[in-house]
Amino acid sequence: xxxxxxxxxxxxxxxxxxxxxxxxxxxxxxxxxxxxxxxxxxxxxxxxxxxxxxxxxxxxxxxxxxxxxxxxxxxxxxxxxxxxxxxxxxxxxxxxxxxxxxxxxxxxxxxxxxxxxxxxxxxxxxxxxxxxxxxxxxxxxxxxxxxxxxxxxxxxxxxxxxxxxxxxxxxxxxxxxxxxxxxxxxxxxxxxxxxxxxxxxxxxxxxxxxxxxxxxxxxxxxxxxxxxxxxxxxxxxxxxxxxxxxxxxxxxxxxxxxxxxxxxxxxxxxxxxxxxxxxxxxxxxxxxxxxxxxxxxxxxxxxx
Amino acid sequence: xxxxxxxxxxxxxxxxxxxxxxxxxxxxxxxxxxxxxxxxxxxxxxxxxxxxxxxxxxxxxxxxxxxxxxxxxxxxxxxxxxxxxxxxxxxxxxxxxxxxxxxxxxxxxxxxxxxxxxxxxxxxxxxxxxxxxxxxxxxxxxxxxxxxxxxxxxxxxxxxxxxxxxxxxxxxxxxxxxxxxxxxxxxxxxxxxxxxxxxxxxxxxxxxxxxxxxxxxxxxxxxxxxxxxxxxxxxxxxxxxxxxxxxxxxxxxxxxxxxxxxxxxxxxxxxxxxxxxxxxxxxxxxxxxx
Lengths: 304, 290
Hints:
- The structure holds two protein chains of two kinds.
- Helices cover 79% and strands 1% of the residues of chain A.
- Chain A is an all-alpha fold.
- Chain A has one domain.
- Chain A has a two-stranded antiparallel sheet.
- In chain A, helix 6 (142-165) crosses helix 7.
- The model of chain A has no long low-confidence stretch (mean pLDDT 88).
- Chain B is globular.
- Chain B has one domain: ABC transporter involved in vitamin B12 uptake, BtuC.
- Chain B starts with a helix and ends in a 10-residue tail after the last helix.
- Chain B contains ten helices and two strands; from the N terminus they run H-H-H-H-E-E-H-H-H-H-H-H.
- Chain B has helices spanning 2-29, 37-54, 59-88, 95-119, 142-164, 166-176, 188-213, 221-235, 240-260, 266-280, and strands spanning 132-135, 138-141.
- The longest helix of chain B has 30 residues, at 59-88.
- Classes of the chains: A mainly alpha, B mainly alpha.
- The interface between A and B is large, with 44 and 43 residues.
């Protein structure tokens, strides 16, 4: 039981750190926490099942937009609750209509989902309410946001750890290995996938809701930026999507690299990111952690 | 009003059908689900506009250059990027699908980034043969008609080649049973490369014809890919006639929604159709049950 104790200690240290850092560093830490939470939540469903969801930003943006619409009329905890419920309802709808079909349909549907939600919200705002942008005025400091995000990180990783040890994790792994075999061994395919997908998407929606006060001004084009979906997938894959700490290991270096690239090469960084993504798929198909394990194993073999 | 929707819908559907035909060739023959397909389409559209504006080259001549250039690019892309993935996935079901989706997802951002750097994020269009022509009492811009004719010629000649020629027979053999095609002396790798390159060529011709009559920007690739994917699934994956029919159907539906309700809802309509078809007939409207 050393590992959970170590994780809790690390969490405590991370919770105290913002009391001693500058505003810029705190901003970086919020960004890192956001992407660790996104990548971990994404891997919760996609890591074991191999169902690649490209819709991260559809849920993330929905969370942010819910806060933008409701922040003046409801107390903050209720707003967050609403965001979670809307995210869960959307995930159920998407899951029910696509998860019973072959995996490829799921990928294709999630690929366009962000674009669909963005266009629908834009259409609604322009034709019904007559305004496009909205403002978020909440009495939250950067530290509050960081602590909430850290809590989401802890929930996402804690949930993954719990699921990995439970029957659900076993079922998800079986589905990822071979869906036909999984069905024949009595796993309720649709229900298992739907449950894990809804859990993952709800967490992603909450990340968007918690992150949104940082923007102040929100419009569909800003919150449904496809780069978020892209980064989430590449981070989880780089670290190793089927491992508990994989998304974290992938998210932190990539987030820092992304920050550095977007400051120094604002025009060409999508090209770098795309090339890096391709490199990850080719060189480290199972992620850094699996790569390290292989390296360790081969070193041991060469010693003996 | 109904006639207007019909004529404009069919003209739009022609482009969609050609785009879907290219994607269904890539997926059916090379077994690669190409998420960067729309970016290839846009790249061709930008090249046509660039040639028209800077060199004054007529779009009709440009298309004759862009089609073969697309074929070469697709062939190169397959050899460099897709072939290693195919080799790695040997024997593992579903591995190539996941890998190709991820790799082309990366390619999407590379191509989009290149286009943003070269052409900027602004909307682009050219005015070329922009005069109305009377078609069954409906006034249609001449450039749209020409684009439609190009799509029709390219699409139909391919359909005839696939159905009648020995080369088409080989392509169809690989699409149907890639496992047993080598038994009769077919080089599956070569045919896959041809299929992928042919798909890229069709995407380029489709994109170039879009550029003749439509405004577009470097960020529109996802929408093109999405529409082509939906048409392919509606028509039954790998089914050429199905892709053509579903392409025209989608063009009609979109034009109908845009004229009767709101242009902002066309993508929502596309998605609704996608879901209805998936739930009702997962194998596609023209596909056979596997």
